[in-house]
Amino acid sequence: MTDTAASFRLLPGAPDSPVVLHVPHASRAVPEDVRRDIVLDGPALAGELDHITDAWTDEIAAGAAADAAVRPWRFVNRLSRLVVDPERFPDEREEMLAVGMGAVYTRTTHGEALRPEGFDSSALVARYFTPYAQALQEAVDARLAATGRAVVLDVHSYPTVRLPYELHGKGPRPPVCLGTDAFHTPPELLAAAQEAFADFGGTEPDSPFAGTYVPLKHYGKDPRVAALMIEIRRDVYMSEPGGAPGPGLGALADALARLVDASGPRD
User: Fold this and answer.
1) Spatial strand order in the sheet of 176-179
2) DSSP-derived secondary structure letter, 223
3) What is the pLDDT of the chain when averaged over all its residues?
4) N or C: the chain end with fewer CB closer than 10 Å?
């Protein structure tokens, strides 16, 4: 898969739904021409994909969309985050660049070389990152135009045991971490998520991962855009690091559907 237009997909929801389920890190696909610039061999690359991929989160989002009373929209990355990470920025803060985890990764989850020293990431940013960001912004704009608001629910997973690249991973690692933003996460959205995921053994705001994804056009400017990051600890629903899903996957889809319903059209 090398066509930029095929690197992500917007799956339509109900016309009156304000909700966009964003699934940025579920894919393991790396185009061959991109793979040539990665210094890991086959088994090492497969192992890194096991660690870095939010496996099965696209299936959780799909199940939630099918179960929700009003179908949400889904924006799904069809390429691995080893191509580009759409939730970084080309001018990512220095601490993430320092560990090789900017918009284009240069180091692995364990601090080993992923791309050659001095790798020029500009072509990957232009080819994949910029079109992705523009398309997701347009998806949010469309929800604003149709419903007067937008709710971006970012669907992720994270490992049970902290990986070396995690700079702020010393805090609790609950079954479900809820990343928030002071401007874009209203209290009622956080409360709805806490209720929806209550049966999984507890949630924690902003630990071990904090923040949300909002298109830069709207970030810190448009209160009509609400956002929440949902980070699911992988042992809740799958065999780690990159194994098969278990029964928790369906239960998580049901919980996410409840959050979608709580965030959906207003009477």
Assistant:
1) 8-11, 73-77, 19-23, 150-158, 225-233, 176-179, 203-205
2) T
3) 93
4) C
pLDDT in tens, 56-114: 999 999 999 999 999 999 999 999 999 999 998 655 455 556 667 889 999 999 999 99
Query: Looking at the DSSP assignment, which residues form a beta bridge with residue 243?
Result: none
Handedness of CA 98, 210, 218, 135 (dihedral sign): positive
The whole-angstrom separation of Cα 66 and Cα 191 is 23
Nearest CA to 61 out of 156, 142, 140 is that of 156
| DSSP bridge partners of 8 | 77
Burial class (CB in 10 A: 0-12, 13-18, 19+), 217: middle
Q: Do the Cβ atoms of 197 and 176 come closer than 8 Å?
A: yes
In this structure, is the dihedral angle defined by the CA atoms of residues 218, 220, 223 and 227, taken in order, positive or negative? Answer: positive
**AA letter at 56:** W
Q: Which of 81, 83, 87, 113 shows the shortest CA–CA distance to 100?
A: 113
The 10 Å Cβ neighbour count of residue 260 is 26
